[in-house]
Amino acid sequence: MHTETTPEEDAVPRQELHARPESHRLMRAAIHTAYGPPEAALQLQQLPRPSAGPGEVLVRVTASSVNPADLYRTTGRPWVGRIGGGLRRPSRPVPGVDLAGVVDDVGDGVTTFAPGDAVFGWVRGGAYAEYAVVPADQLTIRPAEITDVQAGAVAIAGMTALQGLRDHGKVTDGTRVLINGASGGVGTFAVQIARALGAHVTAVCSTRNVEQAERLGADRVVDYRTQDLSVLADGSVDVLFDVASSIPSAEVGRLLSPRGRRVIVGGNVERNRVIGPLGPTLRALLRFALSKRRVVVFVSTENLPDLEELARLMADGAVTPVVEHTWPLTQLVDAIDEIGGGRARAKLGITI
Hints:
This protein is an alpha/beta fold and 352 residues long.
């Protein structure tokens, strides 16, 4: 990542930057002003520190994480993803969504937080910076049972797994759930949340992730590299929670029970640089259009009640965010490259 300095910074020894008077009010932030490869599109700069307005909270960010959407927003591919985010150039110059940190200040009307509170949540751009202004209804108190780095990995992946299983999969006690893609950010949350909802969980993952899936609570783990999914093709799956979207539609039909559901939450964007994974997804919808089985495709909707539910699950010990590796903000490009290569076994953290 490129690092740019202001004229004032050049005049001060680097080791004294953090000893400046508070009135200087600068912060480090990742800047994204054009679409392209992460190493070319992202820069680290000094920006004015923002202030909290009415209903807002100024958070001193300590941790964030990388989501696949961060890669898509950086590169501008698939192009359909630019809708709402800037057709020609990014509309939000500071990227990053998940965050955890400490309340620095609160705006008028905010009574739920006070300076010094440890919080986590999400922001619609701005998490990859030392300070972020966040609406108060997009934050909650961080449970003492998890670290800042873990909390900074929760919001998007955690709510995707929770909503996909609970709301779209209708998972309850005794539901037979198959999680295809039981590693990575969403997959590791899904295994734990499905168990917390009372499901019997079968996890599908690669050889190197089998032990992790077992540790997270899967009742059965299938290594797709050494085992054929035909061992599961007995029509006993109530919910196929499909993160990887790698199972052929014909085989899906043999997996699902007569009224089973396939909940699609991911796919390979590289299949089509214009519409990403939408083509295979549409074919899946058409295949089961006249069937009693259902195919559900959704995008998570971030909201405070679900964030608070995740906080409760973590405080109870039912869910623990899995962070595979953590990079400093100066190495954000490396983290985004890692998730772009499809090699992530869990969440990838960013310390600020």
